[in-house]
Specification:
Number of strands of chain A: 17
Order of helices and strands of chain B: EHEHEHEHEH
Largest sheet of chain A: 5 strands, antiparallel
Oligomer: heterodimer
Number of helices of chain A: 16
Distance between the termini of chain B: 8 Å
Strand order of the largest sheet of chain A: 2-1-5-4-3
Shape of chain B: globular
Strand order of the largest sheet of chain B: 2-1-3-4-5
CATH superfamily of the largest domain in chain A: GAF domain
Structural class of chain B: alpha/beta
Strand content of chain B: 15-25%
Chain lengths: 556, 125
């Protein structure tokens, strides 16, 4: 009984979970699955049995357990690794040939030897997929025997064939995967709720998803192959010409500049205009602009909601204001003794009613202001002014309130000139909110100081108090509406809208508001505005009117 | 100096406040009307020194009442001051451009109204 030509001992630890895991992954990726027979593998086992004159031949795959891809003369069944004979060839990665298994310790007690089919002879060649041994082509007999050199060469050839088929399966799987991915991508595009249009770098449509076609009321032939601008912007909604050069969509597409949450209108095939929010994303291939993807959706519902909200707020405010005016007027006449002197015990009640009706009035005014800021409809009339003048005015205005609260309110000296271009009345309102807040949150004996600083870019107004300060975790939300810094609305009697309005006014003026605070030391609110340069070539460099999300030429 | 003022405003509360303010504080006499039509009817039989005319009213609005007034003998020369809740400067300018002495803003402070009205009409306080 001679030893098989190449059969080194299999590793001591037969279970290599890492290895079997990798094999499982490779087989899964190659889409080599059990459960169905394939003629291209059956053919090999049939031929192996015939050429080598053995009763049984199999192609087995070995991962977490062993399963059969093809079998001739024997039933293949899933086999646990401990019973697998093939795994000895797979683990070693070399040919295995056992003339008589009953004489080989490795197979002592193996069920395939001791029971049906009572194997004696076994010869196998490992099969690799993508470089990893995952199975065998093996031939078996119930009587001991040996292969001669020719037969071994035949087995080598057949194994190479089987391996090629396995890898071919892997290639087919790759093709199927790419096709599946393409199908999924297509499904995503066609299922998307948003209109998605792909354009080349001239703004010509090369792809449009069904949502885009539905939104524009067009079929593919009317859109693909034409410039998007020509289709959706044949003119402006008011009928005036819409030159390509002024189209933000077209500009973004041809210059490769991204455009985000941009509002415009597209015309539908029936001539109606749809308010649109669009995003233009440039497509680059190795830095060259190849085109862009325009994603857009109908925002008429949102536009309508915004309009209804504005109308609602407007009506409610007006309906609130009218009775408030009557109440305030009546109380004012009563309080002034116009209708006869008030008794001592009557006066506090009238004063309380008056103070609260004033508060309600301010709240209604604030809500209206905020609504108009939100809608971009707060009319601003920018003019060249000196921020220092505004600071002096605010300090004068709030001095009585500060005095009553025992707070020392002053403008820092010297107060440098702060040339800005803003709506003086609205900025005064913004600063009044800040200084009024500072006074309100500073204990008697404290100080509120208003400073102006300038540099080559900006003019800053700093309102510093010696109040109790704002906790760090609330600093981020002080400008949110209805936020009370100390969490107590009744104590401070504010609307909780003042800082939101301040921020809105300052941002609409091209500036920004910041806050820094230290608990127990005080807070500083800083309004930063762009500096105006009248002296530079005579051009006022004030903030341009800020309309962040509209075509500059006015397409809605 | 006491004057007779025709007040035209569709809101009864506001009419009453104006009347109280101008009569009790300003020492004037007030003739109050709820609409332009009523005012046009009253004017021939009730000579007044001035008309305080609300701009936003159902039916004829302020400017329409003004135009009708100017076409009547009794109203052709009477000084008129608008009363408006408008806050827009452009609208205020449009109103001032009409044949009026001035514009008083709503909401008004009833304690300050007599002085405001006198100023608008150009009357010595």
């Amino acid at each position: 009984m001679s030893d098989p030509p190449t059969s080194p001992d299999p590793p001591d630890q037969p279970d290599q979970p890492d290895q079997s895991g990798r094999r499982t992954a490779v087989l899964a990726a190659a889409r080599i699955a059990p459960g169905w027979s394939e003629e291209r593998f059956d053919r090999i086992t049939r031929l192996a049995a015939k050429l080598l004159d053995v009763p049984m031949a199999m192609i087995n795959l070995v991962a977490e357990h062993q399963w059969t891809k093809a079998a001739h003369g024997i039933e293949g069944a899933p086999t646990p690794l401990r019973d697998s004979i093939c795994r000895h060839a797979v683990d070693s990665g070399t040919a295995l040939e056992v003339a008589d298994m009953t004489q080989d310790g490795r197979f002592e007690g193996n069920v395939f030897v001791t029971r049906d089919p009572h194997l004696r002879f076994y010869a196998a060649r490992p099969l690799a997929v993508e470089g990893l041994d995952v199975g065998t082509l093996c031939v078996m007999d119930t009587a001991p025997r040996e292969l001669d050199e020719d037969q071994r060469a035949v087995l080598d050839e057949l194994a190479a064939w089987a391996e090629a088929e396995l890898n071919n399966a892997s290639l087919n799987a790759l093709v199927r995967r790419v096709q599946e991915q393409q199908r999924l991508t297509g499904l995503v595009l066609t299922s998307a709720d948003e209109g998605i249009v792909g354009c080349d770098h001239d703004g010509v449509v090369v792809f449009a998803n069904p949502a885009a076609l539905a939104l524009l009321g067009r079929d593919e032939g009317e859109l693909v192959g034409r410039r998007l601008h020509d289709v959706v912007h044949p003119a402006r909604p008011d009928g005036t010409p819409f030159p390509t050069a002024q189209c933000a969509t077209h500009r973004a597409m041809t210059r490769g500049e991204p455009l985000t949450a941009h509002e415009t209108s597209f015309v539908r095939s029936d001539g109606t205009w749809v308010p649109i929010e669009q995003t233009v994303a440039p497509m680059r291939d190795a830095d060259a602009l190849v085109g862009s993807v325009v994603t857009f959706r109908d925002v008429s519902a949102r536009t309508e909601i915004a309009r209804l909200k504005a109308e609602f707020v407007g009506v409610v405010s007006h309906e609130l204001r009218t009775p408030l005016t009557s109440i305030r007027g009546s109380l004012a006449l009563l309080g002034a003794g116009v209708m006869g002197p008030l008794a001592d015990e009557q006066r506090p009640l009238v004063d309380m009613a008056l103070a609260n009706v004033e508060r309600l009035g301010h709240l209604v005014d604030d809500i209206l202001d905020l609504e108009r800021l939100d809608a971009g409809r707060l009319p601003l009339r920018p003019a060249a002014i000196d921020a220092a003048d505004l600071v002096r005015e605010v300090v004068d205005l709030l001095s009585p309130a500060a005095q009553a609260a025992g707070v020392a309110l002053a403008a820092a000296r010297p107060l440098p000139a702060g040339p800005v271009t803003v709506d003086a009345g609205r900025l005064l309102q913004a600063l009044t909110n800040l200084v009024g807040n500072a006074v309100k949150f500073t204990e008697a004996g404290g100080e509120v100081t208003v400073r102006v600083t300038t540099d080559e870019r900006a003019v800053r107004v700093h309102v510093t108090d010696t109040g109790r300060g704002i906790p760090a975790d609330r600093l981020g939300s002080v400008f949110d509406r209805f936020v009370h810094i100390d969490g107590d609305a009744t104590r401070t009697k504010g609307s909780g809208l003042g800082l939101s309005i301040t921020r809105g006014i300052v941002e609409r003026s091209g500036g920004r508001v910041e806050v820094a605070s230290e608990l127990g030391v005080g807070s500083t609110f800083t309004v930063e505005l762009p500096r105006r340069y009248d002296e530079v070539s005579g051009a006022a460099a004030g903030p341009a009117p800020v309309t962040p999300t509209a075509d500059p030429q006015g397409a809605p | 100096m006491s004057r007779t003022i025709l007040v035209v405003d569709d809101e009864p509360d506001i009419r009453e406040l104006i009347r109280l303010s101008l009569e009790r504080l300003g020492g004037h006499r007030v003739v109050a009307c709820a609409s332009g039509a009523e005012a046009l009817g009253r004017l021939p039989e009730e000579p007044v020194d001035g008309v305080l005319l609300d701009v936003r009213m159902p039916g004829m609005d302020g400017p329409e009442v003004l135009a009708a007034l100017r076409r009547t003998p009794a109203g052709a020369d009477v000084p008129v001051v608008f009363l408006t809740a408008s806050v827009l400067e452009v609208q205020m300018a449009d109103l001032r451009a009409l044949d009026v002495r001035g514009v008083v803003r709503k909401p008004f402070d009833p304690l300050a109204l007599p002085a405001e009205v006198a100023l608008a009409f150009g009357w010595a306080a």
